[in-house]
Description:
Elements: H1 2-26, E1 35-44, E2 50-58
Antiparallel strand pairs: 1-2
Amino acid sequence: MNYRIIKKLLCLILVSTISIGTAAAVEVQPRWSYILTISGDIDISSAGVATVRGNGSARLNDVDKLVITLELQRCTKGT
């Protein structure tokens, strides 16, 4: 009899722990508000010239201005 009660109690504790962990993991906070799409591309020619392109879009009714800044950094000697 005691074994059955302990088994049910253990199952209840495990289910509640899993449920609490799952509920906490489901809530995701947005990092960027009003952004619909963002993309980027880099091309490096056979001569070693790098070109970057970026594109983005935002909700028209919620955003007055959209600025995309792309920066290239050259790695020399592993740094």
